[in-house]
């Protein structure tokens, strides 16, 4: 995410760290580099100008304060300024006093609007809500089908023209209006309306969304924008905001090689914050937007908070505790191993997780980590019988050959896995982590 920008900042700060005191010339130099880094990241010119001016103001007299080292102070100032530029606070969603809470989704075609609608529905479910998805994009024939498929994936019902709410001519405004009544009937407390997108802004599209907004009275109107389109995204947002009162932006495709311009310009130029961010094709790659976390990532400080959130979401606490207890008792089996591995995998690609750790050197952060290796290990374990997973000692030569065949790997790979597993068990016992067995052993002597 924003790798080039992170690299630039890292370079600037590394040079800065070497200095004991900062002269005025040093500060000028740093500010010039920051300015260039932001412009290269496609940040709007006015935003860059304001950013640099505020950092300059905050650094005045810095070399006089001896408490912190000057480089640290500059980094802190830039960090705070980045957080502010990204919108400051994380949005707190409030719900309509009289349900349903309506969320209107607008955006250009291909921005990721339909996907984001489903992801948002999943997010609301995670908040204990009962969302309903409404397909009001009747322009693109495949859109409704896509929404239905996504709805099934996130287990949220989808209503559209083909249902009872469709009305006579399948008018999107009518569909949206009827869907609100349908939500009340079905006891759904959040309604997410996916509206039509076009390739570019046009009056008819704007008029349609405006009418839908009029009849559904949304609590939130979100504009979905593709982060990869940089400053164009901001122009789109400005145009939509003129026609439709936006409450926030949903920024998508942050996993791509977006430079950062859209994220860093939207709040100041449009005056509306980024509400949610989407950073992948999977339905789980979506969350509230956290300016502080992204600012930390941009400055190479990692993003431990997101890592913890992911772990909380992916890990079943009880299962993990039980597995840990068995590990301590030297009774950890391939069954536990497989469960743990699958939980780790739920947190997303390993390469993505490494980027969230603070202080990870650039080379490692950008290294391609082969998630396929995990897949191969998983295939070998799933090719074992339950008995083999519980008692690996019974896996003899012919069983090894069968496991290799079943998982499409070499016998040498199966041997390596079994060896590693045995070594791990031995190590656990050797560390005195097998209390029950150890006690028994002592008694026996
Ligand atoms: P719509 O035309 O605005 O409704 O866009 P879609 O929801 O159909 O998305 C367009 C394409 O972008 C699809 O192939 C999505 O899978 C993809 N997409 C959406 N969000 C993301 C994201 O956050 N990251 C990535 N990599 N792809 C995304």
TrEMBL record:
GO terms for molecular function: 7S RNA binding; GTP binding; GTPase activity. Residues 273-286 form the SRP54-type proteins GTP-binding domain. Keywords: Cytoplasm, GTP-binding, Hydrolase, Nucleotide-binding, Ribonucleoprotein, RNA-binding, Signal recognition particle. The keyword Kinase does not apply. GO terms for biological process: SRP-dependent cotranslational protein targeting to membrane. Involved in targeting and insertion of nascent membrane proteins into the cytoplasmic membrane. Binds to the hydrophobic signal sequence of the ribosome-nascent chain (RNC) as it emerges from the ribosomes. The SRP-RNC complex is then targeted to the cytoplasmic membrane where it interacts with the SRP receptor FtsY. Belongs to the GTP-binding SRP family. SRP54 subfamily. This is Signal recognition particle protein. It comes from Iamia majanohamensis.
């Amino acid at each position: 995410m924003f790798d080039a920008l992170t690299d630039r900042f890292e370079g600037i700060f590394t040079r800065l760290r070497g200095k004991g005191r900062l002269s005025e010339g040093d500060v000028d130099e740093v500010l010039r580099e920051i300015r260039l880094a932001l412009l290269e990241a496609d940040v709007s010119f006015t935003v860059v100008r304001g950013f640099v001016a505020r950092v300059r103001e905050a650094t005045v007299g810095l070399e006089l304060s001896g408490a912190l080292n000057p480089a640290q102070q500059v980094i802190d100032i830039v960090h705070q300024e980045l957080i502010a530029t990204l919108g400051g606070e994380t949005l707190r969603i409030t719900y309509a006093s009289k349900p349903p809470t309506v969320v209107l989704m607008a955006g250009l075609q291909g921005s990721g609007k339909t996907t984001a609608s489903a992801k948002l529905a999943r997010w609301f479910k995670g908040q204990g809500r009962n969302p309903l998805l409404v397909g009001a994009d009747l322009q693109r024939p495949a859109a409704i089908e896509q929404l239905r498929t996504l709805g099934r994936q996130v287990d949220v019902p989808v209503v559209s023209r083909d249902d009872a709410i469709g009305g006579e001519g399948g008018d999107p405004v009518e569909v949206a209006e009827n869907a609100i009544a349908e939500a009340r009937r079905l006891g759904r407390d959040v309604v997410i309306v996916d509206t039509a997108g076009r390739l570019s802004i046009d009056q008819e599209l704007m008029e349609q969304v405006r009418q839908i907004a009029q009849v559904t009275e949304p609590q939130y109107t979100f504009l979905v924008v593709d982060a990869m389109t940089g400053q164009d995204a901001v122009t789109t947002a400005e145009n939509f905001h003129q026609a439709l009162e936006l409450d926030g932006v949903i920024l998508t495709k942050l996993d791509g090689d977006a430079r950062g311009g859209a994220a860093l310009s939207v709040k100041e130029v449009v005056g509306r914050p980024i509400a949610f961010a989407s950073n992948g094709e999977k339905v789980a790659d979506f969350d509230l937007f956290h300016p502080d976390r992204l600012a930390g990532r941009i400055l190479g400080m990692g993003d431990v908070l997101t890592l913890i959130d992911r772990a909380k979401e992916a890990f079943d606490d009880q299962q993990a505790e039980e597995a840990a207890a068995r590990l301590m008792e030297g009774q950890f089996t391939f069954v536990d191993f497989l469960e743990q591995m699958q939980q780790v995998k739920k947190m997303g690609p390993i390469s993505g997780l490494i980027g969230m750790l603070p202080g990870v050197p650039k080379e490692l952060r950008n290294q391609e980590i082969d998630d396929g290796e995990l897949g191969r290990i998983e295939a070998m374990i799933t090719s074992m019988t339950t008995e083999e997973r519980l008692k690996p000692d019974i896996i003899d030569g012919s069983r090894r050959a069968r496991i290799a065949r079943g998982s499409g790997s070499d016998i040498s790979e199966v041997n390596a896995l079994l060896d590693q597993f045995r070594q791990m068990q031995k190590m656990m016992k050797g560390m005195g982590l097998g209390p029950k067995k150890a006690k028994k052993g002592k008694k026996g002597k």
